[in-house]
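Example S7 (C-alpha cells).
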C-alpha cells in the first residue's frame, strides 16, 4: 500500500473536518475545509483510498505545505 500525504496549500485555520479515520475516499472527495482570510478552501483527496490518519483538529492553525492527513491507497 502507498501512503499519500495531503498538505495545506495556504496558511490558515482548520474550519471543519468532513471525514473520519477509516473512511473510504474517492479521488476529489472533500476531506476538510480550511479558512484563510475569510475564504473557505476545500481540501480534497488527491487519490482514492482509506483515510488512515488526521494530523489536525478544528481551529488548529496550519502552515503552507503542512501535512493535514494521510491516505492509504
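Recovered sequence:
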Amino acid at each position: 500500500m502507498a501512503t499519500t500525504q495531503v498538505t495545506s496549500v495556504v496558511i490558515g485555520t482548520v474550519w471543519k473536518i468532513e471525514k473520519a479515520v477509516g473512511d473510504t475516499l474517492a479521488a476529489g472527495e472533500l476531506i476538510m475545509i480550511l479558512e484563510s482570510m475569510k475564504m473557505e478552501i476545500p481540501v480534497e483527496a488527491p487519490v482514492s483510498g482509506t483515510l488512515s490518519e488526521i494530523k489536525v483538529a478544528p481551529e488548529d492553525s496550519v502552515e503552507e505545505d503542512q501535512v493535514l492527513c494521510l491516505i492509504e491507497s
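Notes on this example. The mean pLDDT is 97.
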